[in-house]
Design brief:
The protein has 62 residues and is mostly helical. The chain has a domain of 30 residues. The chain contains 2 helices and no strands. The chain is elongated.
């Protein structure tokens, strides 16, 4: 979890610096793409964890 928090802090800080362009629409669009990709990565990770737990037989205990 600490790894993901550090990665989030690093990428959000770099995205904030990289997307400070005079044109606000480009900045907003790039930020939305960044958050969308971050959300997709989190969803894929959650599905992988759930699949591993299901395969290990932990689904019945939940």
């Amino acid at each position: 979890m600490k790894f993901w928090l550090a990665l989030f802090a690093l990428t959000s800080a770099s995205a904030d610096v990289a997307f400070r362009w005079p044109d606000g629409m480009v900045s907003t669009f790039a930020t939305l793409i960044f958050w969308y990709l971050l959300f997709i990565m989190a969803a894929i990770l959650a599905m992988k964890i759930a699949d591993r737990r299901w395969r290990a037989g932990e689904a019945e205990r939940l």
